[in-house]
């Protein structure tokens, strides 16, 4: 495949040796298919970051490690790459390690591989489990600062965390839910992708606290461990609806919202109020179609900018500063949606 990048740049982006990259590019064989795919992904990343590659300045190579559905990972990539030019005169380059689900051991292997080959920083969205916490500790001990994104790992010794106040977001969802349901009867389905993500746990706690205090007559029904993936989410929601004919509203903490709505439709059930999180491409479409009542959104570009600044401060490239405040929570309806790129 044609490209304008020297082998050493591709090797650095992919985290591989120049000899391995050369074998892939010249079709010499002896390379696993997964390794060849890493080379081609590195070239695609370099092409998107072409402006940064050509800049001259202090360079930071940062690894972005995210466990989340593709729709969220795509939003993270777009937010970071939109911020890269604004970091000039520093040059920040990024390598991406995305997966939708899987055992914690896979995430640990990725983090340990980064520790061995080196990096100027890691921006991480991962479950809060002991194995991952220990791997983050090893990165920090190796002098690689780690910033957690959206969901925290407070026992890991990470450098900092960027994102919104998740308890406040859950409480906001409960306030809106109670106002919009009003006097109508009905139970509320709370949907989590996984109890291992601290941000989802905190949102759920904020939501339950306000619902118990202000709307004690509402029964909350939980559907968990769908991983935000459509197939598993559909089955979980459909089973919950079959068990409880009183469910009339949804607070979606972990995504999979199109599948949730299909489950309601397939059983001929009305969803009177549906509150979700994050303006990813799926939620943007559903909100435009008036199939969601509101999306609680925070500015991912601001989060990625703050994460990059934390990494740069750790290396002395920016003066010390106080920890960044939580991102503002925006209540987005079909009538106040922010403009999307290209509009």
UniProtKB/TrEMBL annotation:
CDD domains, sorted: HTH_LacI, PBP1_sugar_binding
Top-level division of the source organism's lineage: Bacteria
Domain HTH lacI-type, chain residue ranges per copy: 7-57
UniProt keyword Transcription regulation present: yes
Gene Ontology molecular-function annotations: DNA-binding transcription factor activity; transcription cis-regulatory region binding
Family annotation (SMART domains): HTH_LACI (SM00354)
Keyword presence, Aminoacyl-tRNA synthetase: no
PROSITE patterns: HTH_LACI_2 (PS50932)
Keywords: DNA-binding, Transcription, Transcription regulation
InterPro entries named among the record's database cross-references: HTH_LacI, Lambda_DNA-bd_dom_sf, Peripla_BP_I, SBP_2_dom
Listed Pfam families: LacI (PF00356), Peripla_BP_4 (PF13407)
Protein known as: LacI family transcriptional regulator
């Amino acid at each position: 495949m044609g490209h304008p990048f020297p082998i050493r740049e591709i090797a650095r982006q992919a985290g591989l040796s120049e000899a391995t990259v050369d074998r892939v590019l010249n079709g010499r064989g002896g390379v696993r298919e997964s390794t060849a795919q890493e080379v081609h992904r590195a070239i695609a990343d370099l092409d998107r970051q072409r402006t940064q590659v050509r800049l001259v300045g202090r360079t930071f190579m940062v690894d972005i490690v995210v466990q989340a559905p593709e729709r969220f990972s795509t939003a993270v990539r777009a937010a970071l790459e939109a911020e890269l030019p604004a970091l000039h005169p520093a040059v920040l380059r990024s390598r991406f390690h995305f997966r939708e689900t899987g055992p914690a051991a896979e995430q640990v292997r990725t983090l340990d591989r980064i520790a061995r080959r080196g990096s100027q920083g890691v921006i991480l969205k991962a479950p809060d489990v002991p194995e991952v916490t220990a791997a983050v500790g090893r990165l920090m001990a190796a002098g690689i600062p780690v910033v957690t994104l959206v969901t925290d790992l407070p026992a890991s010794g990470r450098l900092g965390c960027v994102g919104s106040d998740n308890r406040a977001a859950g409480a906001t969802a409960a306030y809106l839910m109670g106002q919009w349901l009003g006097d109508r009867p009905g139970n509320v389905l709370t949907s989590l992708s996984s109890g291992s993500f601290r941000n989802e746990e905190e949102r759920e706690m904020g939501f339950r606290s306000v619902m118990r205090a202000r709307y004690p007559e509402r029964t909350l029904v939980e559907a968990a461990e769908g991983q935000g993936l459509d197939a598993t989410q559909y089955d979980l929601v459909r089973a919950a609806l079959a068990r409880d004919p009183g469910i009339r509203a949804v607070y979606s903490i972990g995504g999979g919202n199109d599948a949730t709505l299909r489950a309601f439709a397939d059983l001929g059930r009305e969803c009177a109020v549906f509150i979700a999180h994050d303006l990813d491409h799926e939620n943007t479409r559903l909100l435009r179609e008036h199939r969601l009542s509101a999306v609680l959104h925070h500015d991912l570009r601001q989060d990625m900018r703050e994460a990059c600044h934390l990494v740069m401060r750790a290396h002395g490239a920016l003066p010390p500063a106080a920890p960044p405040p939580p991102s503002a929570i925006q209540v987005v309806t079909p009538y106040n949606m922010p403009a999307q790129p290209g509009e």
